Structure to design on (276 residues):
C-alpha cells in the first residue's frame, strides 16, 4: 500500500493525541500518508500532506480515528473507489473498528501486509431518482408517531406494518440499529438483507431475512408530512405517498482490513459483553 489517508473525527480525538501518535508512527517508518483536509492549518501538522473528498481514488488505504460513525462518514467514498479501510477505535463499542488505542503499533503490521480482509456488502437505496449507498441500513420512518407502510420483495407483498419505522439492514448493519430493534445477528459473510420493523404494533410482524439477489420495495400507506428516509443515521430525503423506496445489493463493496488473529465472533463477544 503506497498511499494512505488518515481521517480523524475531531469530536472524538479532541486533543489530536491519537492522530499525532499515528502520524509520528507512520512518518518514522517512511509511510507516505495524507491527513484529511480538516486538519490543514493545525500547528501540529505544518509539514503534513493532505487530501480531500475528491482524492479518495488516489489512496490505497484510509485509516479512520473515531468510532463506527466515523467509519460510516467515509465508507461510501471508499466503496466507490475500492479503497481499503482500517479503523482505530476512539469511540465506544466500535463494532466496525479494528485497532484499539493500546495496540496502535499494529497498524504497521497491517500496512506491511500482515492482515486479513473482510469484504462487506453495501446496499443501494433509490428514492425520487436519487441513489444512495449504505453499509448498515436504510430506515423509513416519521419524525414523530407511528408509520403505516408495506414492503414487497420482487414485486410480491410481504407485509403491511404499523410501526415506528422499517429497517432494511445489511449483515454489517445487523449489529447496529437492527439488533436493538430485535433483529438477528448475521455473519458478515452471509449474502442476505434483513427487514426489521421497529416497535411494531402487531405481534405477527417479525424480522425477515431475504437473499441479496432480491429487490425490496417500501411504500407508505398513508400520507405523512414528516415521513423520511434515513441512510446510515443520516436523513437524506422526505417521502411522499407516491414514492417507492427500492433497496437492493450494490455492485460496490468495501474491504475492511483486520488483524489475522481477530475475527467477527471474537469481536462480537467482546462488544456485546460490554453491553451486559
Amino acid at each position: 500500500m503506497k498511499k494512505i489517508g488518515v481521517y480523524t473525527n475531531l469530536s472524538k480525538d479532541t486533543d489530536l493525541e491519537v492522530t499525532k501518535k499515528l502520524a509520528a508512527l507512520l512518518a518514522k517508518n517512511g509511510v507516505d500518508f495524507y491527513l484529511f483536509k480538516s486538519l490543514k492549518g493545525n500547528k501540529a501538522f505544518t509539514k503534513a500532506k493532505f487530501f480531500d473528498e475528491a482524492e479518495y481514488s488516489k489512496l490505497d488505504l484510509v485509516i479512520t480515528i473515531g468510532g463506527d460513525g466515523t467509519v460510516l462518514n467515509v465508507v461510501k467514498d471508499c466503496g466507490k473507489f475500492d479503497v481499503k479501510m482500517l479503523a482505530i477505535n476512539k469511540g465506544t463499542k466500535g463494532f466496525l473498528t479494528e485497532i484499539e488505542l493500546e495496540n496502535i503499533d499494529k497498524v504497521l503490521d497491517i500496512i506491511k501486509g500482515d492482515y486479513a480482509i473482510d469484504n462487506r456488502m453495501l446496499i443501494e437505496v433509490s428514492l425520487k431518482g436519487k441513489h444512495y449507498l449504505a453499509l448498515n441500513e436504510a430506515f423509513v420512518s416519521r419524525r414523530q408517531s407511528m408509520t403505516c407502510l408495506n414492503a414487497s420483495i420482487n414485486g410480491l407483498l410481504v407485509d403491511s406494518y404499523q410501526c415506528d419505522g422499517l429497517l432494511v439492514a445489511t449483515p454489517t448493519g445487523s449489529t447496529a440499529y437492527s439488533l436493538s430493534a430485535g433483529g438477528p445477528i448475521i455473519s458478515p459473510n452471509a449474502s442476505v438483507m434483513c427487514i426489521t420493523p421497529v416497535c411494531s404494533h402487531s405481534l405477527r410482524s417479525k424480522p425477515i431475512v431475504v437473499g441479496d439477489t432480491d429487490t425490496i420495495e417500501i411504500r407508505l400507506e398513508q400520507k405523512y408530512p414528516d415521513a423520511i428516509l434515513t441512510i446510515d443515521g443520516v436523513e437524506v430525503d422526505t417521502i411522499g405517498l407516491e414514492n417507492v423506496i427500492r433497496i437492493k445489493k450494490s455492485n460496490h463493496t468495501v474491504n475492511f482490513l483486520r488483524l489475522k488473529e481477530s475475527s467477527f465472533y471474537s469481536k462480537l463477544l467482546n462488544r456485546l459483553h460490554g453491553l451486559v
